[in-house]
């Protein structure tokens, strides 16, 4: 791997030659043929770049190098004011006499076998000009990402006696880039993000935030937004961070995950603050498309069971608050060591519920990609996660239960997931047991409506055997009867009606079940008959269904 420390003007010239080629017009200074793209210029691109770079070299003084090699002999290489050179000719570290090839002195280069060697050589030795390092990083995209990953992985340690020498030996333009080697600089950017941007858009859980679990494109966006709120922003560091972020965030356009959506949110706000309207519109359009894919943002006309208020509420809660689970680590956050962040711990849930299995190393949610993500249906886990958050913060049990009932009625939520959701709710909030159980009962009955319709009770046509549907009906009837037996005071007219409906469906299911299933269904029907008989004394509407149920059981027994 060959690293060049000064800007390569010949590369620009070569690219222009490939695009246009030479013309028949000669330059007045160098007497050489101009490029076709330079026909309207007074001089050719070669002369213009030479003049600009020579002035820039004189001003910044980055043409002086000092290499400290493994051998005891040291040598110094000085460039001339002319920076035009041939990129094929290199100066190897092993050369004892650099004057053997005069062309190489115009472009002092060194060879490295790995990125780690580059880091050790460039940062751990005194008298290193960091402006040259920044220049090479901005011109080589691959090296940019590799060096940045090395900076994140291995903190740079410089000897105390050489630290002051390095800083004062650098030119004024090169000194700010010395911050790139400091671990405290990168931590400061994350702290600035959490202090200024997180209170407005809580995309992370502060209690369990760990930068090591974030993907590189999301971490780069967080650092860039934190750098925007930094008081001292040198131009060279700004160019480096923007260049690196633009290279890395290209990955988020090809990955369907909440981390990608977070990155787009942060970059859209960054370009809003910096005034780049075109890029902000681009990221907003990408946010919309990715939101449709993830099921977070959906058209109301395709979801007739959601009104505008509910859709906006779900969008604001799920898309901005629940996204904090992307990149959450189950270890304590390193931010707890900073007392100024303790008052910013938002009251929303900070620890993912065990029901939602999020992999901290993989920010994409498996359920979102694997289950029911279409434009007409929202994700089951995101809906339940939103309801869980709303219950924990506002205790609106009745409102949430009604919404879950609506989802179950449409067949959007499975019976098992709905039951687990309410089981976890009862486990974590035992003080609300009396108020949660009735809604769990109603939710469970709604989950069985689709299965009851499957048996088509009013039709006399034969039904194919489906043991899974019968097992699900048995589970539903067992749960309903156990709740009704242990908590008889929560029974009402709706519960009675659902029990009758399950009983009628169970009667028809007896024809297609085996002997063991028939015994369970019959036992549940008898219990259901006794329960309805007690309730019918206080409710005249249950008498007619009770007669039908007794008649069905009698015919089966005969």
From TrEMBL:
Q: Where in the cell is it found?
A: Nucleus
| Entry keyword annotation includes rRNA-binding | no
Please report a single Pfam family linked to this protein.
Zn_clus
- Taxonomic source organism: Conidiobolus coronatus (strain ATCC 28846 / CBS 209.66 / NRRL 28638)
Query: In what residue span(s) does the Zn(2)-C6 fungal-type domain sit?
Result: 26-56
Keyword set for this entry? Answer: Metal-binding, Nucleus, Transcription, Transcription regulation
Q: Which PANTHER family match?
A: ZN(II)2CYS6 TRANSCRIPTION FACTOR (EUROFUNG), ZN(II)2CYS6 TRANSCRIPTION FACTOR (EUROFUNG)-RELATED
SUPFAM superfamilies reported for this sequence: Zn2/Cys6 DNA-binding domain (SSF57701)
Lineage, uppermost ranks = Eukaryota, Fungi, Fungi incertae sedis, Zoopagomycota, Entomophthoromycotina
Question: What superkingdom does the record give?
Answer: Eukaryota
Instruction: Name a GO molecular-function annotation.
Output: DNA-binding transcription factor activity, RNA polymerase II-specific
Q: What's the protein here called?
A: Zn(2)-C6 fungal-type domain-containing protein
Listed InterPro entries: TF_fung, Zn2-C6_fun-type_DNA-bd_sf, Zn2Cys6_DnaBD
Principal location class: nucleus
Q: Name one GO cellular component term.
A: nucleus
């Amino acid at each position: 791997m060959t690293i060049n420390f000064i800007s390569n003007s010949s590369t620009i010239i070569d690219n222009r030659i490939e695009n246009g080629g030479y013309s028949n017009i000669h330059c007045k200074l160098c007497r050489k043929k101009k490029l076709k793209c330079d026909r309207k210029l007074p001089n050719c691109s070669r002369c213009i770049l030479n003049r600009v770079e020579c002035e820039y070299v004189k001003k910044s003084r980055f043409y002086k190098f000092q290499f400290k090699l493994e051998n005891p002999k040291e040598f110094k290489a000085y460039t001339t004011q002319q920076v035009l050179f041939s990129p094929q000719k290199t100066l190897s570290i092993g050369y004892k006499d650099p004057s053997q090839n005069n062309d190489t002195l115009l472009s002092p280069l060194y060879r490295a076998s790995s990125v780690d060697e580059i880091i050790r050589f460039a940062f751990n030795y005194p008298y290193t000009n960091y402006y040259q390092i920044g220049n090479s990083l901005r011109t080589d995209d691959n090296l940019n990402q590799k060096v940045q990953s090395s900076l994140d992985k291995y903190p740079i340690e410089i000897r105390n006696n050489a630290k002051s020498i390095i800083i004062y030996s650098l030119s004024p333009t090169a000194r700010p880039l010395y911050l790139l080697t400091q671990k405290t600089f990168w931590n400061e950017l994350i702290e600035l993000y959490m202090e200024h941007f997180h209170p407005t858009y809580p995309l992370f859980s502060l209690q369990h935030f760990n930068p090591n679990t974030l993907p590189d494109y999301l971490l780069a966006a967080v650092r860039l937004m934190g750098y925007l709120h930094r008081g001292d922003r040198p131009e060279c560091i700004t160019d480096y961070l923007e260049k690196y972020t633009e290279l890395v965030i290209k990955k988020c356009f090809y990955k369907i995950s909440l981390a990608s959506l977070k990155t787009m949110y942060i970059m859209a706000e960054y370009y809003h603050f910096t005034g780049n309207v075109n890029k902000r519109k681009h990221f907003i359009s990408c946010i919309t498309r990715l939101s449709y894919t993830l099921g977070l943002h959906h058209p109301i006309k395709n979801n007739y069971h959601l009104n505008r208020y509910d859709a906006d509420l779900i969008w604001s809660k799920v898309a901005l608050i629940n996204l904090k689970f992307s990149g959450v680590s189950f270890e304590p956050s390193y931010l707890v060591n900073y007392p100024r962040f303790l008052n910013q711990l938002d009251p929303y849930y900070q620890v993912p519920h065990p029901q939602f299995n999020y992999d901290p190393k993989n920010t994409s949610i498996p359920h979102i990609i694997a289950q029911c993500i279409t434009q007409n249906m929202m994700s089951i886990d995101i809906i339940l996660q939103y309801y869980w958050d709303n219950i924990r913060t506002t205790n609106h049990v009745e409102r949430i239960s009604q919404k879950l009932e609506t989802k179950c009625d449409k067949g959007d939520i499975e019976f098992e997931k709905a039951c687990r959701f309410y089981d976890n709710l009862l486990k974590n909030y035992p003080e609300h047991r009396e108020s949660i159980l009735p809604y769990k009962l109603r939710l469970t009955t709604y989950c069985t409506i689709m299965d009851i319709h499957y048996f088509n009770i009013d039709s006399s046509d034969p039904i194919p055997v489906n043991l899974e549907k019968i097992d699900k009906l048995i589970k539903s009837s067992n749960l309903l009867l156990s709740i009704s037996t242990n908590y008889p005071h929560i029974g009402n007219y709706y519960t009675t009606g659902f029990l009758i409906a399950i009983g009628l469906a169970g009667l028809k299911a007896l024809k297609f079940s085996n002997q063991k299933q028939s015994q369970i269904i019959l036992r549940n029907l008898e219990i259901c008959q006794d329960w309805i008989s007690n309730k019918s004394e206080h409710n005249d509407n249950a008498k007619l269904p009770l007669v039908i149920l007794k008649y069905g059981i009698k015919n089966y027994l005969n």
